[in-house]
Amino acid sequence: MLAAVMTGFGQELSHTTVEDPRLQGPEDVIVRVEATGVCGSDLHIRSGSLQNVLGRPDFPYVLGHETVGTVVEIGAGVSAIKVGDAVALHPLITCGICQDCRAGRDMYCADALFPGVDQRTSGGFAEFVRTGVRSCVKLPKELSPMDFVAATDAWLTAYHAVKRVLPFIRPGFTVVVIGLGGVGQFALQCLSALSSVNLVAADISGDRLSDARQLGVSDTVLVSSDRPIDSWNGRLGSVDLVFDCVGATSSLESGLALLRRGGMLSIVGAGGDLNLSSVAATGREITVMGNYVGHYEDLLELVELIRSGAVTSSHVAYPLSQAEQAMQDLSSGRLSGRAVLVP
Questions:
Q1: pTM
Q2: Which of 117, 186, 194, 284 qualifies as a FRET site for 300, CA 20 to 30 Å off?
Q3: Which stretch of DSSP H or E encloses residue 266?
């Protein structure tokens, strides 16, 4: 099959032929890829900045962890889905029997595989991908699988993060979302759909802020190197919660500076360092919440929200052969919406 593969850290993706995936166990599923999203994590993995956490793959390695497609082959133990079903894939392949899986926290699975991320399991930047039956969510027939591609990770992470803070916020709270890429835009939509807070959007892109205004935010902040977001603290007033969908050291510092005493910083993006002294944390009683990908039940709920039209998305489609261009466009910040590869 054709795939866009990583041949080395820092190297451009190569469009080439690799071996087709095969069933390896009774609960395995082979999916023909209809679309796969390009994520900021793909940039970090390709750069090698995460190899201390993930290790080093045996190159070539196939990225891609936001995948929708059609089932083409199933293992002997699969009965919940059938060949021909359109499915969205939870990004993890989980065991189903460990303590966390049994408790519904399957994203913490002790024996999970993470296709396109874990450096040993091939992902969705290809014509076909292997997954597990527990990862497959059937998609409504009335909509295109493309409508759900980002739900499998970017939206899933944002939705999971929003659900986690709901017990801590009240109507009228001020919530700032930093970074309006695919994750940030969807966090805005989820907060709007699930709460009654005053939403403030912050980004370096005026176009993205214009998009945010269409989502009904209360205020917007255009951020630049000489106009950091914390300089707007007086105008914004008391900020109860900050969603950092960038995760850079500078954005984390700005988010902390914005918070009132007793406020919360919810970290969704990754890549930087959080510098928070114990004195500041205790004296201001700041809560910091990190967020991993959502669990299977979150994905089921999210698919229903998309089907109902409660949340929507935009994307820019690239043929699989232009995967490197999609990566570069994402890295440069030129995209509005999600980059999606179509084999």
A1: 0.87
A2: 117
A3: strand 259-267
